[in-house]
Structures are given as C-alpha cells and as structure tokens.
Amino acid sequence: MTRASSVSRKTNAQELAEDEPQVLILDDVLVNTDPVRQERILDVLAAQANHLQILILTCHPDRYRGLGEAITLIE
C-alpha cells in the first residue's frame, strides 16, 4: 500500500466516523517508509486515535513502539 492510499483510507474512515465509530486497519503501511516520514505518519495516527480505533498489522513491531496503549504480538 502506498502512502497516498494510507492517507485516503484514513480520510475515508474519518468521514465515516462522524456518524458512528469506525476501525482503520493498516497492514504494514510503513514497511518502505524512511524514518522522517514514519515519524510524521505516526504523529497523524496518534492524533486520529481519539476518533478512530486503529489496528496495525505488522511484522516490524519496533516501528510502532510507543504508539497506543497496547501492543500484542502474535507469533
């Protein structure tokens, strides 16, 4: 998934969340992102966490450390 696609999904979920709670599911969206852009995207996701439930699926949990309150590893 490209960064543009990620932004589009976030925007769509945000619009839908005006009427009822929504879940935004992201599957390893930062796998090819440089560290600077990754921090910016994490800031955007953290800001949206008050309005959306965000579920991030990843094989690289270290990239998401400190984001949210719970991290569950499934092996």
Task: Describe this protein's structure.
It is a single chain. The protein has a two-stranded parallel ribbon. It is built from two helices and two strands, in the order αβαβ. It has helices at 3-16, 35-48, and strands at residues 23-27, 53-57. The two termini are 23 Å apart. The protein is α+β, with helices and mostly antiparallel strands and 75 residues long. The radius of gyration is 12 Å and the shape is globular. The chain has one domain. Strand 1, helix 2 and strand 2 form a beta-alpha-beta unit.
Write the layout of secondary structure elements.
Layout lengths: L2 H14 L6 E5 L7 H14 L4 E5 L18
Parallel strand pairs: 1-2
Structure in a nutshell:
The protein has 75 residues and is an alpha+beta fold.
Please give a handful of descriptors for the protein shown.
75 residues; alpha+beta; two-stranded parallel sheet; 2 helices; 2 strands; 37% helix
Q: Please report the number of helical segments.
A: 2
- Poorly predicted regions are none
Structural class, by secondary structure, is alpha+beta
Order of helices and strands: HEHE
CA-atom Rg in angstroms: 12 Å
How many domains make up the coordinates? 1
User: Reading side by side through the largest sheet, how are the strands ordered?
Assistant: 1-2
The pLDDT mean sits at: 75
Percent range of helical residues: 25-40%
What's the total number of strands?
A: 2
Q: Biggest sheet: strands, sense, closure?
A: 2 strands, parallel
- N-C termini distance: 23 Å
- What spatial form do the alpha-carbon principal axes imply? globular
- The percentage of residues in β strands lies in 5-15%
